[in-house]
Amino acid sequence: MLSIVAVQITVLASGSRGNGTVLATSQTRLLIDCGLSCRETCRRLAAQGIAPESLSAIIITHEHSDHVNGVHVMAKKFRLPVYMTAPTHGAWQRQFKDSAGNRVCAERLETFSSGRTFSVGDIEVMPFTVPHDAADPVGFRFLAEGVRVAYATDLGFMPRNVRDHLRSCEGLILESNHDLEMLRVGPYPWAVKQRVMSRVGHLSNDALAEFLTSDYDGGAAFLILAHLSERNNHPDLARVAAERALGMRPGLWGNRLMLASQDEPLATLTL
Known about the structure:
Blueprint (H helix, E strand, L loop, with lengths): L7 E6 L6 E5 L4 E4 L5 H10 L9 E3 L5 H4 L2 H8 L3 E3 L1 H10 L13 E3 L6 E3 L2 E7 L8 E7 L2 E6 L7 H6 L5 E5 L4 H6 L4 H8 L7 H10 L7 E5 L8 H13 L8 E4 L9 E2 L1
Parallel strand pairs: 3-4, 4-5, 5-6, 10-11, 11-12, 12-13
Antiparallel strand pairs: 1-2, 1-14, 2-3, 7-8, 8-9, 9-10
Helix pairs in contact: 8-9
């Protein structure tokens, strides 16, 4: 039995060099994405007092390397089931090989489909489609111990279906990837800039602020800004954009606003 009360969220890493978040109840621990190496994932888990052996499963948003780099080794070493959509699994296998040069595989593969709820232990998972340049990218809304938490990063814009899934959540982990001006004058080639700014790229500070101003219901106990670009954003810019948007909505200053980091875990949050 896990010694955890209620629901806990631990962001191990967030950014283009690797992503990973743990959602835990008293019975179940989910690792959402595994973009760090197995060694680094275990190091960060240990820093937060989480034994990798206590993980229940790995659940994957999409096949880009910063979300799946450590999946094969982590799942094999700890005999973890891996949940992903069938198109994501196919893309992952085509793109990655193990140390022997063979295609990666998940010995305990579980597939799911966007829009269809499934459960892992006592956590109910609703995957929803997000606009991103991957095979079958999804975000997640989790229901655990009566608490709803939504996770949506790597999306070019906020379509209606995503906005709907973010309602009535006690916890939100949302992308605030880039500052538009920093991206425009930054070092990326123009083709990469176009990709990031496209409708299948990444969400800007301004785009997230627009959602917070126009559609956010203000019900979350915390909002975590995630997947900040290290070259095209600055934590202060992301924070100020979000705070200004929340400040335009009376009564929403009770939300705890935090920024996830690429280099170190965010302190565990409990709901």
